[in-house]
């Protein structure tokens, strides 16, 4: 799922920044020697692109067929031990966190609404409260 509200911007912007070729909405991907063949659906049918590597690809929902976990397999997975590996063992640099939480607080409660008799009264109230 794209973080750009499915507007198809992330892959294209990344390809532009890296100056790499791009294949968007890939529904089939095949690796070749130093290249990748991408098949994508367009309005008139299928389009096949051959891109040199490295390249940026974005996936269409038909690229992979999802596998759904069955209930017996879910129950088996719950019983398996979970191995925790420290980041240092994987060669990931540690250190102090880059972010520090200074304060967390609830937003102020919203004030209740008021009914006014006329538009003029509404404008006067808004002026008095500094809204306009």
TrEMBL record:
Transmembrane segments: none annotated. One of its GO terms (cellular component) is mitochondrial matrix. Pfam families: ETF (PF01012). One of its GO terms (molecular function) is electron transfer activity. Keywords: Electron transport, Transport. Its main location: mitochondrion. It comes from the Eukaryota. GO terms for biological process: amino acid catabolic process; fatty acid beta-oxidation using acyl-CoA dehydrogenase. PANTHER family: ELECTRON TRANSFER FLAVOPROTEIN BETA-SUBUNIT, ELECTRON TRANSFER FLAVOPROTEIN SUBUNIT BETA. This is Electron transfer flavoprotein subunit beta. It comes from Picathartes gymnocephalus (White-necked rockfowl). The gene is Etfb.
């Amino acid at each position: 799922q794209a973080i750009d509200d499915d507007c198809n911007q992330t892959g294209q912007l990344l390809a532009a920044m890296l100056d790499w070729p791009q294949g968007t909405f890939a529904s089939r991907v095949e690796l070749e020697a130093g290249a990748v063949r991408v098949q994508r659906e367009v309005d008139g049918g299928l389009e096949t692109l051959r891109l040199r590597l490295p390249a940026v690809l974005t996936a269409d929902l038909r690229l992979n067929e999802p596998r759904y976990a069955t209930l017996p397999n879910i129950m088996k997975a719950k019983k398996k031990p979970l191995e925790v590996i420290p980041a240092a063992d994987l060669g990931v640099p540690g250190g102090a966190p880059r972010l520090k939480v200074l304060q967390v607080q609830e937003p102020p409660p919203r004030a209740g609404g008021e009914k006014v008799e006329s538009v003029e009264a509404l404008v006067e109230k808004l002026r008095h409260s500094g809204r306009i």
